[in-house]
């Protein structure tokens, strides 16, 4: 008896009686139905009465009063209760003792027969498929076991330092960045030097113009001095350049008085500062940050002389490759101006033209004089020497032919395998004509046990030994 927890009943008093002969497999079918229903809220009541004795034995052994009590309890159950009464009988319906319709209506009785040919054919398909899957699963488990090697401890890392190639690349990158910085700062200084508005700050103050200037100003600065320091590579960051540049404004504010002329000079110094700061703000931020990183690391990297040499590139043999490599090195290729176009044209390869061609001209035909002359008296053309005979062997065609042959062999082996499987299946169907479920179950166990006992060496090609075992098994009548 099975209780299902549905909110609304779907069947009026659900009851099912399975009847069949001894080999119909009802002892498997009843538990299978219960197992299928276990995915829902299922509770089995009276487990021994369901799984031990079939209903025809229980009904024969039960007392009349017990039968009456059972019928009374079943009749008192509400019709909308979600309770399924399931029974199995190993005898035919007409052989049941008593009236089974009092418990199971005629519409709830299902007659189960022995497996027919279609059922056995489907069963053997699954059996052969399972036999082929056993060696592959065993090989996969062995490969997993062999692959599960103990993990070795990691070797300690040895700090060998950066490689020579890495040092060279870093030094080259830093040199390129500082070169770009000098180009930007040099451009700023030259723009200021070309601007006549800032002529008072172009060059150092002479003692003739201001005798007490160097006594008042401790750190004099001008654009020419800044340009010299830029050329000398004194500045590796914009911040260092601006520190010296800001001295121009600071010195102008200190030395000049508050009169009209002094105020004009200080105002011009402010204008100079705004112009320079505006030009520096247009620089690449990535370049500025990279140069600051170089300064934080202590300046640009300097390589020793033994590893600081440049890498020489070997010159190619052909002119075309020489010109290509020259372009990569930003070097202009050598061109002989004195050499005329006619001389270059004469060096071009000559074309072999046919006089019968419509575009043939006498000038073009004159170029054929250097070709070997064939004797017109001999109708057969001269054959090339034996040394010049070549055999054209295309590796693609060879590989394609090999792949075709392999695919053909694979197709043939598959056809042979299918043929053997069909013959095995036919013998199984012929030898199990009157088999019931218990006999088929015993046959399944024998075949699977035999496949497990096979010693298969090559796990990649396990079908031949399995087929050989199945053929030997079905040909032996003692197994049936």
Automatic annotation (TrEMBL):
Domain Bromo: 201-263
GO function terms (MF aspect): ATP binding; ATP hydrolysis activity; chromatin binding; histone binding
GO BP term (any one): nucleosome disassembly
GO CC term, one of those recorded: nucleus
Domain of life: Eukaryota
Record's signal peptide: none
Annotated Acidic residues bias: 389-398
Region (Disordered): 137-165, 352-414
Matches recorded under SMART domains: BROMO
NAD listed as a keyword: no
Keyword field: ATP-binding, Bromodomain, Nucleotide-binding
Residues in coiled coil: none
InterPro entries according to UniProt: ATAD2-like, Bromodomain, Bromodomain-like_sf
Entry similarity comment: Belongs to the AAA ATPase family.
Name of this protein: Bromo domain-containing protein
Record lineage: Eukaryota, Viridiplantae, Streptophyta, Embryophyta, Tracheophyta
